């Protein structure tokens, strides 16, 4: 079989190269050097193609030969390029992780203390946690997201499972959807790139709704509503609760009501992604508006939650999946099936991060400290928005930069083209996504002027 393929490829290669050779020789018109170069070209080409032919089939002896090189993850790729750059002027606006004004990673003070307390706690052991995670953690997450006085909490209608960060919650949630529900998944255009990958891997059909308007650099509510009003009943709509990634553009409270209306009319199931509670407005309660409003309106829904950003627990992988059902009986059935999804993916969650979050959420004093600290952290990002806009205005950089202070959360969708972003990286050591997404957490009072100068240059060069 492989032998036949090689012979066939050799025949194709020879025919192709002989034609090229004849054509080129005609034009090279007896120039000897040209002919020699042509012979080398043909042979190199032939050698490469033969190698490809040899590798084009997997065999029991070479089982991975059919794999092709996959592209690197865009965000982790930028992180690595930034680390490898020796320049002391480099600015990291790629990854959505908080940095101090000294460009250092930040550990919440309350997190450090609670972690130490847990390490010193001799009553704890390393036995497996329940499949759905720590009960106190799950209750604390429900209070945080839905509000501590929400009647839903006592109703027994919410199923909650501790998951491996927001990504883990999304994956468990969409695996559950794929197995137990039917329907297309509507995804904002653009969205966090891992949403598309996760949906792809779970085998769900994705349809874009036109979320972002490049003209206004804001939310295109009319187009979103038009698109969703044509969705098939039973479809699932993936919605960012706040601080939309990558655009930093969120619906207003009035627009959320319109989205709720169309979801109700078309019987669409909301699947919320909540990765930035506290980072949009600086207020935990305000940032939960969409989920709480949909709950109040009687929606059943799914929510994937992440503590990576708002507790700075990035590498501890702490998140939760909530499924709001219509009754306690149905909740029990949902939980039983959810547990099978989790058991087959990673069995049960790790303990340390969940314990930290749980102690903070369940202890009034720690909770208060965390909320205050979160507010300080968010305040720095909001100040950097104003600083950057002021610098750009001061330098008279062409265009309108109002969207920098209008957009919220970690990211600004700058409107810079991929070529301008490339130029920022190559010539000015500024690392950001080619979509023009900038992580505002990487801006500091020390690098903001240099950044504005660099933006001015690339904008002038367009
Ligand atoms: C929109 C969105 N959802 C989910 C996540 C996942 O977060 P985690 O790091 O907890 O997996 C992120 C992280 O960047 C995000 O931006």
From TrEMBL:
InterPro entries: Aminotransferase_I/II_large, Asp_trans, NHTrfase_class1_PyrdxlP-BS. Homodimer. It catalyses: L-aspartate + 2-oxoglutarate = oxaloacetate + L-glutamate. Residues 89-455 form the Aminotransferase class I/classII large domain. It comes from the Eukaryota. One of its GO terms (molecular function) is L-aspartate:2-oxoglutarate aminotransferase activity. The keyword Transferase applies. GO terms for biological process: amino acid metabolic process. Belongs to the class-I pyridoxal-phosphate-dependent aminotransferase family. This is aspartate transaminase. NCBIfam families: PRK09257.1. It comes from Paramecium octaurelia.
């Amino acid at each position: 079989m492989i032998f036949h393929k090689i012979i066939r490829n050799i025949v194709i290669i020879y025919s192709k190269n002989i034609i090229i050779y004849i054509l080129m020789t005609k034009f090279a018109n007896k120039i000897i050097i040209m002919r020699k170069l042509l012979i080398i070209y043909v042979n190199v080409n032939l050698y490469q193609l033969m190698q490809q032919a040899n590798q084009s089939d997997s065999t029991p002896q070479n089982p991975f030969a059919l794999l092709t090189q996959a592209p690197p993850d865009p965000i982790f790729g930028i992180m690595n390029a930034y680390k490898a750059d020796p320049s002391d002027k480099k600015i990291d606006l790629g990854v959505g992780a908080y940095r101090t004004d000294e460009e250092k990673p930040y550990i919440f003070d309350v997190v450090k203390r609670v972690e130490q307390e847990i390490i010193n706690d001799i009553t704890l052991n390393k036995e497996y946690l329940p499949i759905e995670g720590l009960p106190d953690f799950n209750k604390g997450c429900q209070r945080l997201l839905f509000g501590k006085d929400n009647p839903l909490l006592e109703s027994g209608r919410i199923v909650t499972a501790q998951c491996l960060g927001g990504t883990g919650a999304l994956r468990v949630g969409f695996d559950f959807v794929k197995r137990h529900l039917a329907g297309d998944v509507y995804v904002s255009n653009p969205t966090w790139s891992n949403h598309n990958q996760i949906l792809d891997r779970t085998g769900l059909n994705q349809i874009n709704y036109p979320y972002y308007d490049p003209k206004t650099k804001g939310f295109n509510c009319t187009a979103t509503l038009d698109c969703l009003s044509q969705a098939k009943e039973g479809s699932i709509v993936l919605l960012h609760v706040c601080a939309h990634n990558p655009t930093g553009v969120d619906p207003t409270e009035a627009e959320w009501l319109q989205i709720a209306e169309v979801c109700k009319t078309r019987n669409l199931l909301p699947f919320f992604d909540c990765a930035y509670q506290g980072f949009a407005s600086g207020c935990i309660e305000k940032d939960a508006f969409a989920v709480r409003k949909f709950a109040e309106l009687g929606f059943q829904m799914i929510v994937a939650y992440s503590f990576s950003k708002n507790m700075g627990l990035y590498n501890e992988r702490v998140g939760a999946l909530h499924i709001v059902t219509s009754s306690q009986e149905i909740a029990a059935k949902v939980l039983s099936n959810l547990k099978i999804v989790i058991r087959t993916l990673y069995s049960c969650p790790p303990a340390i991060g969940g314990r930290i979050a749980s102690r903070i959420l369940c202890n009034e004093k720690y909770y208060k400290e965390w909320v205050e600290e979160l507010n300080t952290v968010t305040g720095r990002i909001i100040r950097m928005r104003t600083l950057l806009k002021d610098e750009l205005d001061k330098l008279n950089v062409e265009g309108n930069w109002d969207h920098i202070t209008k957009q919220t959360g970690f990211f600004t969708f700058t409107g810079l083209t991929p070529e301008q972003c490339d130029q920022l990286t190559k010539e000015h050591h500024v690392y950001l996504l080619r979509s023009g997404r900038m992580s505002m957490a990487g801006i500091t009072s020390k690098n903001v002027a240099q950044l504005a100068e660099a933006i001015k240059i690339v904008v002038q060069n367009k």
